């Protein structure tokens, strides 16, 4: 089977983030997606730095791309993007928290 962008994206839509119950494509976790021949290159951006979740999603992404899209190899860079917490609101005396 020859890789196409559609087959790659369809395969990635089957991978769910266990914390958000949505797929990695809908959550914007896949970046810099490209392929050459049967090799897929991508950057996986996680919202949580938990190692167990990272390992689980990495494995599921690779498995989906090989099994469903037909990739022969997956080259993946993993980054963690923590959401910036809003500063605590100040009370009427100007003291945060």
Topology, pairings included?
Layout: H1 5-12, E1 16-17, E2 22-23, E3 30-36, E4 39-46, H2 51-69, E5 73-80
Parallel strand pairs: 4-5
Antiparallel strand pairs: 1-2, 3-4
Structure, described:
The chain is of the alpha+beta class. Helix content is 28%, strand content 28%. The protein has a 3-stranded mixed β-sheet with strand order 3-4-5, with helices on one face. It has a two-stranded antiparallel sheet with strand order 1-2. The chain is globular.
Q: Strands of the largest sheet, in order across it?
A: 3-4-5
Arithmetic mean pLDDT:
88
For the biggest sheet, the summary is: 3 strands, mixed
What is the C-alpha radius of gyration, as a whole number of Å? 17 Å
User: H/E element string?
Assistant: HEEEEHE
Identify low-pLDDT runs.
none
Count of DSSP strands: 5
Q: How many helix segments?
A: 2
What's the overall geometry? globular
User: What is the share of helical residues?
Assistant: 25-40%
Strand content: 25-35%
Roughly how many Å apart are the termini?
Answer: 57 Å
Structural class: alpha+beta
Relevant terms:
alpha+beta; 3-stranded mixed beta sheet; 97 residues; 5 strands
Give a concise summary.
By secondary structure, this protein is of the alpha+beta class. 28% of the residues lie in helices and 28% in strands.
């Amino acid at each position: 089977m020859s890789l196409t962008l559609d087959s790659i994206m369809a395969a990635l839509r089957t991978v769910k983030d266990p914390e958000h119950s949505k797929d990695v494509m809908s959550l914007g976790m896949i970046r810099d997606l490209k392929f050459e021949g049967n090799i897929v290159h991508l950057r996986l951006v996680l919202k949580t730095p938990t190692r167990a979740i990272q390992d689980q999603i990495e494995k599921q992404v690779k498995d989906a791309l090989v099994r469903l899209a037909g990739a022969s190899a997956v080259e993946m860079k993993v980054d963690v993007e923590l959401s910036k917490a809003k500063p605590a609101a100040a009370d009427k005396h100007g003291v945060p928290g």
